[in-house]
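Deliverable D2.4 — example input (structure tokens):
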């Protein structure tokens, strides 16, 4: 999937000379947590979000520090925080470093960018023009749509086993040489040993995510690497 497949195309924005209260009203009215800041000519110059408005003098939440710490921080940073807490225009409080994506940016690259920079929204560009916005909510909606579109597929037990083994062969954590997989009537039975309890959950998830699987039975034993102690699973049974 690409950025254009999940983005919100109707972008609510605010101008840099608008008042902070105008931005707040827009966010409340449209139930959104941030706004692209754009000039009258359509140039993207910043982002204003709820996070930019947490430290406000109106709320009594402006930063307060001991004098000795203020001396270490320096006047520049304190001046910037003063503007952030008391500025009346959007340009005073907005974040000016803006990360963007193109329409054809793969969704994986979008998520990596959002994770790397710890941001919740990403303007989508066509050249120098903002044509959309991707938020974490857009990603959740896309995931929900994919789940609705997914349909259980009829598959033979052998086809299920082959698909699951092919998936595990690609995973460096999977102890493929220590486990055996049996599939009966769509139910996957996991046998063998693991050396880390987290492998158990990952193997079950891999099985549950395989098309055609109706349930999973866990018979895996955990071998503690240091002592060699074998610990059987607490309980076995099919998981839908």
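Example output (designed residues):
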């Amino acid at each position: 999937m690409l950025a254009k497949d999940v983005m919100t195309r109707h972008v609510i924005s605010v101008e840099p000379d608008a008042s902070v209260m105008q931005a707040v009203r827009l966010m409340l009215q449209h139930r959104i947590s941030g706004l692209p800041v754009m000039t009258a000519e359509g140039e993207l110059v910043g982002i204003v979000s709820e996070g930019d408005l947490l430290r406000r003098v109106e709320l009594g939440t402006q930063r307060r520090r001991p004098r000795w710490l203020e001396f270490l921080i320096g006047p520049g940073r304190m001046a910037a925080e003063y503007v952030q807490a008391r500025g009346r225009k959007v340009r005073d409080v907005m974040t000016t470093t803006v990360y963007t994506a193109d329409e054809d940016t793969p969704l994986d690259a979008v998520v990596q960018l959002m994770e790397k920079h710890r941001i919740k929204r990403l303007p989508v560009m066509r050249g120098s023009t903002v044509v959309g916005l991707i938020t974490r909510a857009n990603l959740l909606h896309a995931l929900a749509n994919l789940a609705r579109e997914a349909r259980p597929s009829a598959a033979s037990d052998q086809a299920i086993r082959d698909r699951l083994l092919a998936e595990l062969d690609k995973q460096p954590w999977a102890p493929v040489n220590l486990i055996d997989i049996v599939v009966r009537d769509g139910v996957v039975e996991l046998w063998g040993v693991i050396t880390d309890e987290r492998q158990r959950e990952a193997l079950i998830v891999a099985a549950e995510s395989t098309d055609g699987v109706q349930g999973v039975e866990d018979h895996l034993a955990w071998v503690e690497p240091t002592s060699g102690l074998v610990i059987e699973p607490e309980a076995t049974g099919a998981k839908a």
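The radius of gyration is 26 Å.
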